[in-house]
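User: Can you recover a sequence for this backbone? Please restate the input before giving your answer.

Assistant: Of course. Working from this structure:
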C-alpha cells in the first residue's frame, strides 16, 4: 500500500487538487468532481459537497451585496437598467469564484474526516 504525506485540506481544496496526494486535479469541469484522481487513483465518487458551498456563498455574498446595492440606490438613485448593468456581473463573478474554492475545501474535509459513504482513505 502506497503511503501519501498528509495534505492540508485547506491548501488542497483551494488549489483544486486531490486531497490524498495533492497532485491530481480534483475537478474535471468547473464544479464537477472527478470520479478518480488521475495521479493516485483515489476514488472520488463518494465525495460531494452537496449544497454546502452554495449556502456559504449565498449568505456571505448577500451580506455584502445588499448593503452596497442599497447604498448605491440611496446615494445616487440610478435607473433600474443601470442597477442591472452594475450588479449582474458583480454578483456572477463574486458567486462563481468562491463557489469552486469552497467546494474544493469541503470535499477535502470530507476525505480528511472520512465522512463519505465510501469511507475515504486517509492512508
Amino acid at each position: 500500500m502506497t503511503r501519501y504525506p498528509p495534505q492540508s485540506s485547506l491548501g488542497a481544496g483551494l488549489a483544486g487538487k486531490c486531497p490524498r496526494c495533492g497532485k491530481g486535479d480534483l475537478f474535471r469541469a468547473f464544479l464537477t468532481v472527478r470520479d478518480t484522481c488521475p495521479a493516485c487513483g483515489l476514488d472520488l465518487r463518494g465525495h460531494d459537497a452537496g449544497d454546502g458551498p452554495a449556502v456559504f456563498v449565498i449568505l456571505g455574498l448577500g451580506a455584502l451585496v445588499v448593503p452596497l446595492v442599497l447604498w448605491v440606490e440611496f446615494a445616487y438613485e440610478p435607473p433600474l437598467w443601470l442597477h442591472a448593468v452594475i450588479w449582474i456581473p458583480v454578483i456572477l463573478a463574486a458567486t462563481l469564484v468562491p463557489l469552486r474554492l469552497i467546494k474544493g475545501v469541503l470535499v477535502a474535509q470530507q476525505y480528511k474526516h472520512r465522512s463519505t459513504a465510501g469511507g475515504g482513505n486517509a492512508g
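That completes the design. The radius of gyration is 19 Å.
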